[in-house]
Amino acid sequence: MRNSSRREFTALALAALGPRPSVAQSKSRLILLGTAGGPRPRANRGSPAQVIVVNNTAYVIDCGNGVARQLVRAGIPLAALRHVFITHQHSDHNADYGNLLLIAWTAGLRTRVDTWGPPPLTRMTSLFFQMNDYDIRTRIADEGRVPLVPLVHPHQITRGGLVTKDENVTVTAALVDHPPVAPAFAYRFDMPDRSIVISGDTKRSEALIRLAQGADVLVHEAMYPAAIDRLVAPLANAAALKKSILSHHTRAEDVGSIAAAAGVKTLVLSHFVPAEDAGLTDQMWIDAVRATYQGRIILGTDLLEI
User: Fold this and answer.
1) Which residues, 6 or more positions from 267, have their beta carbon under 8 angstroms from its beta carbon?
2) Helix/strand/coil for 165
3) DSSP one-letter string for 32-52
4) Of 62, 2, 14, 60, which is closest to residue 37 (Cα–Cα)?
5) Distance between CA atoms of 279 and 276, rounded to whole angstroms?
6) pLDDT at position 15 over 50
């Protein structure tokens, strides 16, 4: 996807949304931090992550490689971090989970952070702090920082339903279908001004359709099957990887039918598989989804605010 065409499409999509409220007027903000699918670094798209900001409180969903830097580029103070949600335990979604916590702390975080996600989240958190114990202890003694470990409270979830609720947002989850990784979750965020659903990684999921009913925004992963051969061609494990990808991601056409069945107002495509392909244009993604969905479609780009 060429930068010029991406910028042009984004401008058209935002124009379709109407006048954009100022930060002061807007109660909630959704920013796409990384929109590539898969763990391999890409030149033009970051690893999967997004943030919802409500009343200056940051709720991060997924922690792909580079999430802390993307938050800074988006203008979100790392010290505003309060909640982290992991959709599933694949490395493109959790690689910087611990790093985000540590780097936010070095950037001034002094308040509680609750983290949510499937097992082994608690053990991951503990092991990460053990791995970085020397650095943490040194910075506390040398720089006068508050202890980090007591700030972080991991919560493992294994089923759908209510996850958490505070003065800003109610978060609910649904189990989605992303074999062989289980459990895997989609999350819904209900705020006073709108509702946002993040699909995580999944093939077509009836549970996700139920979770997303009537949502204002659905951010959903998207796969273009005809391009998968080009994606895996250089790899020694091409056959196995192709089979894996096709078995647990959602075709763009099916993303459209999911959004239509859920009655969502705006569909945002993200976690693109493949993330970069010279043979794929913006319009090809749009046409594939438009075949089954007639609502508003936005192609996600890194740092796009919806």
Assistant:
1) 218, 220, 255, 256, 259, 289, 293, 295, 296, 297, 298
2) strand
3) EEE-B-SSS--SS-PPSEEEE
4) 62
5) 9
6) no
> Which of the 8 DSSP states describes residue 151?
G
**Mean pLDDT of the region 133-147:** 98
How distant is the alpha carbon of residue 184 from its chain centre?
Answer: 13
**Residue that is written with structure tokens 């978060």 in the block:** 171
Q: How many CA atoms lie within 13 A of 300 on its CB side?
A: 33
Give the pLDDT confidence score for residue 6 in this predicted structure.
44
Closest to 145 (Cα-Cα) out of 108, 101, 94 = 108
DSSP-derived letter for residue 193 is S
Residue 8 and residue 115: Cα distance in Å, rounded?
37
**pLDDT surpasses 90 at 278:** no
How would residue 27 be classed by pLDDT, with cut points 50, 70 and 90?
A: confident
> What is the number of H-type helices and E-type strands within the chain?
11, 13
- Mean predicted confidence (pLDDT) in 207-211: 98
**Count of C-beta atoms within a 10 Å radius of residue 79:** 14
Cβ(50)–Cβ(62) under 8 Å?
yes
Structural domain spans, the chain: 3-299
The DSSP secondary structure of 57-95, one letter per residue, reads EEEEE---TTHHHHHHHTT--GGGEEEEE---S-HHHHT
CA distance 279 to 125: 41
Q: Indicate if the pLDDT at residue 17 is higher than 50.
A: no
Query: Whole-number mean pLDDT of the chain?
Result: 92
Fold of 3-299: Metallo-beta-lactamase; Chain A (3.60.15)
